[in-house]
Amino acid sequence: MKRLVLCFLAGTLVLAGCQSPGGSRGGRSGASQNFLKSISWDAEYDVVVIGFGGAGASTAVSAADSGAKVLLLEKAPEGEEGGNTRYALQLVLIPKDKEAGILYFKGLRGLYEDQSDEVIELIVTETMANQDWLIKTMGANPDTITHRLMREYPELPGAEEAVDGIFVEPGFWNSSLWNLLRKNVYDRKDKIDVWYESPAVRLIQDPVTKIIHGVVTENKGKRYNIRAKNGVVLACGGFENNDAMLENYAQLSNAYSKGAKYNTGDGVKMAIDVGADLWHMSTLAGPDVNFVNPETGRAQFYGLQLPAESYRMTGFMGQSAIFIGGDGTRFTNEAGFPRHGHYNYGGTWFSLLVPNNSWCVFDETARLGRPAYFQWSQGMEEEIAKGWIIKANTLAELAAKMNVPAENFAKEVAEYNQFCQNKYDVRFKRAEPFLKPIASSGPYYAFPIRATLTNTQGGARRNIECEVQNVWGESIPHLYSAGEFGSFYCDVYNGGGNLSECLFTGRIAGRNASAVKRDTDQGSILDKTPLDLSSAALSYTTGPNQYLGRAMGIGSELVVRVTYTNGKIEKVEILSHNETPSISDRAIAEIPAAIVKANSTEVDAVTGVTTTSNAIKKAVAEAIAGVR
After folding, report:
1. What is the radius of gyration, based on Cα positions, of the chain?
2. Among residues 50, 265, 72, 262, which one has the least CA distance to residue 182?
3. 227, β-bridge pairs
4. Are 549 and 623 in contact (CB under 8 A)?
5. Do residue 433 and residue 467 come from a single domain?
6. DSSP 8-class letter at 100
7. Alpha helices, DSSP H only, in 299-423?
8. pLDDT at 29
């Protein structure tokens, strides 16, 4: 009786407010059918996946293998898909022992309460299943899988026994995992359609039942309604390229992405629009500090802070170089390797605080010692010529160019040099092997550094079935999420964890989204020829003694045409590639000529552009393999 009275008082909210959680039972199918008929649909699929990165690819494969016809919507142009997975280390975190893994992940959770023990058990159990899935389902070669320990928080209980990681092929940042995932999507082209340059802009939700029936996508300025009979999966990454969201959720301004530039928080807007709860919005993999390439608008990728004690290599900041903020003073341990942007403040790890006007300052010895980034020129002469690096003869002149107080700057350099002499950094505990003093005379150099993010973790709250939840903890019917959008991680993070999460949440979301739903009509209601925006494969011509070869670079497929006569490589042409401009240019220009000169693909890779160099060599080898 009380419930009836409350519903009456609710007035116009009676239809929605007095139904069972998540929508009505019994009458939901009929109401849903009426809503479905009110929409002009342009295409229909069993499952629609939003975002073609590691999570989206895993989801699409899982749904297709469960019998669903899948549409994969991607905001980026073809060749720029892949989200942050494409740019990641390619390490997949896999705990070695379940109980130790649970203990370790509880330590990573810290004092945060927004991650249950049930979620932690799910993370550990499912990440432990990733290697088997990669081999048996995705076709990873067990003979090429290599293991690497990645105990980012070795002081936590369980770390020694728990943490392991794998590469599906040896090597860092070689896109090997991404290439495998992408290949599996295209191997299932009879079950998976991919639409590029087609961002999802709205979810289509029945206002009464709250069922998500589809997606509005935009392509070339036109909007289309795409029905999803059984599920929509948000696998659209984070918001590291959305300035407003970084300000509102992460208290960051003037911050930049190191990876995917199409992660602009679209999923956050769509989730809010349909009543989803948000969580982990302030959980970041970052920020650390890096130079932002003015030619690409993207943060330079790693290399600045890689001290020997962490990775057995000396990063640039192990030399006579320091970071300076806008007030002319240091603000962190420059040679300490940030744990995905987290630094130790009094025994607790927090995201780094980065002053808006920050600089990397160094002397002539550091300039000649090694480039700040492995992609940069020796002596950084090219970067100086471009104006990326400023030069001055005195500290006062450098301070003026950096727009920092000269007096503070001079005192800070003097204090830092005293720390070097004493072999102890009182301020930031920079390790003694990396306490190298700034020279007493010029020239001096500096380049601007900014807060940079590997990724954000926040998004729609999900349960262990990867069902998106509303603010009352109820599942929004037919809506799921995977990957770093609404990640399970709530505090600090262990490297390889996001890629591992992309795989297992993709498996769960794809399987559950593809399950046939009984609360909606499964019959087709399309009254027109279905829209198909799948990209057609490019075709290339060949003449006499010319052969095509393909290989995966860091930016998707690279295609070459090789002129090969009587055992001689006469010409190598790169017909298509999607490698990063300004970074890959040297490999694109130099490797074909080197192969022709050597009449062999056994040539040295261009320093700093190994993945692109190797892709060219592999493509040439494939082109001539059939005629040798």
Report:
1. 27
2. 72
3. 44, 214
4. yes
5. no
6. H
7. 308-311, 364-369, 381-386, 395-402, 406-422
8. 61
281-333 tens-digit pLDDT: 999 999 999 999 888 788 876 668 765 444 444 578 989 999 999 999 999 99
As given in the structure block, the two tokens for residue 187 are 């191997």
Flag whether 101 is in a domain.
Answer: no
Q: What pLDDT sits at residue 582?
A: 66
Please state the separation of Cα 70 from the chain's center in Å: 23
Give the burial class of 496: count Cβ atoms within 10 A of its Cβ; 0-12 exposed, 13-18 middle, 19 or more buried. buried
pLDDT at site 172: 81
Q: Where are the beta strands (DSSP E) in 346-474?
A: 348-351, 358-363, 390-392, 444-453, 455-456, 459-460, 467-469
Distance between CA atoms of 314 and 310, rounded to whole angstroms?
9
Are 230 and 46 a contacting pair, CB within 8 Å? yes
| Amino acid type, 93 | L
**Total-model pTM:** 0.88
Partnered with residue 387 across adjacent β-strands are none
* pLDDT attached to residue 551: 82
**Where are the strands (E) in 196-352, listed by range?**
200-205, 212-219, 222-234, 255-257, 278-279, 284-285, 288-290, 321-324, 342-345, 348-351
164 in Cβ contact with 147 (< 8 Å) = yes
pLDDT for 579 equals 76
Q: Helix axis angle, 406-422 relative to 395-402, nearest 10°?
A: 120
Dmax over Cα atoms in the chain, in whole Å?
A: 92
Q: Quick one: which of 380, 180, 389 has its CA closest to 291?
A: 389
What's the rounded Cα separation, in Å, for the pair 124 and 100?
9
Amino acid, res. 370: R
Amino acid at 545: N
Pairing state between β 342-345 and 284-285: unpaired
Same domain for 391 and 461?
Answer: no
Report the pLDDT value the prediction gives residue 14, as an integer from 0 to 100.
29
Question: Residue holding tokens 């069902």?
Answer: 467
SS3 category, 219: strand
**Type and span of the H or E element at 623:** helix 610-625
CA distance 628 to 626: 6
Q: Using an 8 Å Cβ cutoff, are 562 and 623 in contact?
A: yes
Choosing from 398, 422, 449, the residue where a domain stops is 449
| Residues of the chain below pLDDT 70 | 1-31, 301-303, 306-314, 536-538, 554-556, 581-582, 608, 626, 628
DSSP annotation string for 563-586: EEETTEEEEEEEEE--PPTTTSHH
Find tokens 């959980």 and name the residue: 283
Beta carbons within 10 angstroms of residue 432's beta carbon: 12
- Residues β-bridged to residue 557: 552
How far, rounded to the nearest angstrom, does the alpha carbon of residue 491 sit from its chain's CA centroid?
A: 18
- pLDDT digits over 518-576, tens only? 999 899 999 899 999 997 656 788 889 999 888 877 666 788 999 999 999 999 999 88
Residue 289 bridge partners (DSSP): 451
For residue 562, the enclosing domain spans: 546-625
Assess whether 183 and 211 both reside in one domain.
yes
| Joined tokens for residue 436 | 């190298």
Shared domain check, 358 and 303: yes
Residues 302 and 436 placed together within one structural domain of the fold: yes
